Amino acid sequence: MLGSEICRQLAAAGKPVRAMVRATSDPAKVEALKGYGVEVVEGDVRDAASLAAACSGAAAVISTVSSMPFCYQPGENDIECVDEAGVKALIDAARATGVGQFVYTSFSMELDFPLHNAKRAVEQHLKESGIGYTILRPGYFMEVWLSPAVGFDAANAKAQVYGTGANPISWISFADVARFAVACLGHPAARNATIELGGPDALSQRAAIQIFEEVGGRPFELQYVPAEALAEQQRTSSDGMQQSFAGLMRVYAGGDPIDMDETLQTFPVQLTSVQEYAERVLGAS
Predict the structure, then answer these.
(1) Residues near 88 by Cβ (< 8 Å), separated by ≥ 6?
(2) β-sheet with 132-138: strand ranges across
(3) 2-284 fold
(4) Is 38 exposed, middle or buried (0-12, 13-18, 19+ CB in 10 A)?
(5) Any idea where the domains of the chain sit in the sequence?
(6) What is the pLDDT of residues 48-79, one digit of tens each?
(7) Whole-number Å distance between alpha carbons of 225 and 67
(8) 159 beta partners
(9) What is the DSSP letter of 191?
(10) Which residue in 85, 197, 81 sits closest to 134, CA to CA?
(11) Which region, left, alpha or beta, applies to residue 171 given φ > 0 means left and ψ of -120 to 50 means alpha?
(12) pTM over 0.85
């Protein structure tokens, strides 16, 4: 989702772009990349030997790769071998081939769970690599966290609320994260920088639901998931993805506000609001 959008924006700006895809990638998505005018090369972060060709001649590498949630397979395509070891191998390949800037998409969430720990380990590896680095730490993507994937079913006016629903979250559109990734390329303020990214407003879950209710013209049916239940789910799960989902939901319940005032002075990206997203979602449903 994010990687394809970054490629699209770069190609639309007339930049030469190479996308690394797996041999098993969705052919329709690969064709879409080619349709943007993007060069496509096969590679896999689990296969270190394939990474040099992907990085060779590149001025910058932007990494959005993750095993979660759609490709996760324990022991084969998981947090340990993709999100941590795989991205570290990509950083090493970038350094070996003389890449000048590495933009890494991490996230803002702070709690002890496998995906968080992998991302922070990769950040440290990148900082120590000697490559000029930019670490982007976006908050919760509205296209994911205000969608049926996590129990937010706007079309049917139903939503799961994690915790009390009263704590502020700075939902951000994945397309806006892509705009920041593009804007950071070669930007002096992005060199060796860690940048947290959120949307234009910090809204509680209940406030976001109210926006959808007003746009859709009907009340939502709400189901509350206590924070204690999420903590128990994380504690009892033996699977890294389930532990990570529970951890992400626990942070979500506790709130994740991000102040964007200073960042927007340097990178004047026009941010998408929850109101705009709700109008788009309900207008299409």
Answers:
(1) 121, 122, 125
(2) 60-63, 101-105, 132-138, 193-197
(3) Rossmann fold (3.40.50)
(4) buried
(5) 2-284
(6) 999 999 999 999 999 999 998 778 888 888 99
(7) 26
(8) 152, 222
(9) T
(10) 197
(11) beta
(12) yes
